[in-house]
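protien #1 (seq + structre)
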Amino acid sequence: MATRARILADYVSSGDELADKAPLASPDFTGTVDLTGTTVSLDDDEISLDKVNGGTLGTGTIGGSSVVNTSGAITTTGGLTSNNAGVGIARTEGTLHVHTASAGTVAASSQADDLVIENSVEGGMTILTPDAMSARIRFSSPSTASGDVGGASILYRQNINKLVLGTEVSGGQVSIKSGAGVERIVVDAGGRVTMPFQPRFKAWKSGSGFTNASGATFPFPSTEANVGNCFNTSTYKFTAPVAGDYWLHFNSIFQGTSVNGWVGFIFSVGTHKGTNIHFNEEFSNASAWKGVELNGVFTLAANCTVHVQTSTITYYHGDTYTQFSGFLIG
């Protein structure tokens, strides 16, 4: 079915008055039309020019529900209304499609297609404000509309050099996702930050007492926490999943009267200071339990392994008295 185009106008640049015309044989127009009035409105198959106050419609095509302006501009002091529109191209995506060049074979999500910005290189949107004024994006709904703050916002203000993002309602939370949409960091309404996937472990050994040989790896066959499976209960070693600073801790109690030795962290990559703790058993009461503890912050490379090693044959206590733990600081 042929497209029907109808123009209703009070005035054109020549001053001639146009009455309501019958449908035009062709919806294609070439040239320039200066308009007088206040509004331009578009329907599915009709364009009405009603009291448009000074404007120019450049070379293009008028028909259906689209206006393609290829070499001119539409400027009014009134309004331009349409069910959808394209800037730089006939609309192909969403409600308003701002097109500089094709991004390739890609379509806008139906959940976020009210405004679509497209380019073949870097694309973007800029908000310009004076230094002492905030540039802001606000998220509102009917229940958060009161008070002019909305439910959440993002803003930047140059004179205080601050970017602020967050919620504006009681009980609001901020979440950061990574990977395939997995929630990794949550800041709750009380300001508490949780990172459920942050690498961490706590290993221990069951049993009341055991002897560990000189130069042997301290055994930790059980774990109470082991996020990311970073601790191996067969080799008794922790593996750093990413490069960063880690807090490591070891503690135990031991028995004896004549042992003079040390316990230390052994790293597969790099050298570190403060990795050993010295102790001795020169006590008259051989049955008394003495404590030994070692901890610190260590910068580890990705895939570096760490285990606890003893230098002498010593009798240690397991169960709740011995543990090896650590976590990624950042």
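ok now protien #2
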Amino acid sequence: MSIRDLSVDELVARAVESDRRAVGRLLSIVERGGEAADHLAECLQQVPTDGHVIGITGSPGAGKSTMGAHLVAAFTAAGRTPAVLAVDPSSPLTGGAILGDRVRMAAVDTTAFIRSVATRGHAGGLALAIPGGARLLAAAGFDPVIIETVGVGQVEVDITAAADTTVVVVAPGMGDAVQANKAGLLEVADIFVVNKADLPGANDARRDLELMLELSHVTGQEDSSHRPPIVMVNSLEGDGIAAVHEAVDAHHVHLIESGNWPPAGAPVFATSSAAAPNSRSTYSSRRNSAMTPLSPSSMQSSPATSHLRRPPASCGSLAGHERHLSSLRRP
């Protein structure tokens, strides 16, 4: 029987057993939305997940894909099975997308699962299907799940609601200390990576970030339990990647010790192909315990979430597949 002939229930049963073709098919269903995606969301509620979701974001040309490829290689070398959702911009003129981020990851070990996703007009740095796709990959046993955003501007911070650990990549020439202290993207980082550290101005970028962190108490954004580390990286040579790996794992430990792990709530699948509002309220937060996961009543009453709806209450039995991810057979 062709993979296209399987029902959503059958595909989910295969996906939690690490069938990559089933995972790919389900990701396509998530991207298309509709009733099948609603049903899939309900099925995934039966599958416990504990995958660590890592967001990599930054301005265009900062080197996110190259750095991310090295990070994925570090995870596979450590015996883990990462998955990547690489978001590429869609053309405002043709609607097409090159989906070129995965080209920079061509040399990554085949243990990793890599999927390119087009924004399809969605603002905020992500595609509408990303929260549901991340949930699916975690349910399939991939850990960590890495989300790479499109090149973003100062206020495109949707990644913070979809990821547990947010890595912000900057490059020399990002601006002066005044630029570093502006509100927006730099405020949401759990880890800073100064990429292209071999270029002039890299130490200046680090100094400006250090100054911003020193002044964070003025804006009330200072977290006494966690100060975002600043890691110097040369992605072309792979220098500093081990330090990024260590910083990501250290932040994961911090989430556990601070009681913010495992994350509360799971993303709700989007069923409309239209662009969603650029609002953090459109996702259930994975890293901010102060945000309440979406409920049916809140979605009915909130204009910001009118494009979302809960999946139907029924779902085919997944008997024999409801188990903790630590017992799942990894790909």
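Residues 265-314, 317-331 have pLDDT under 50 and may be disordered.
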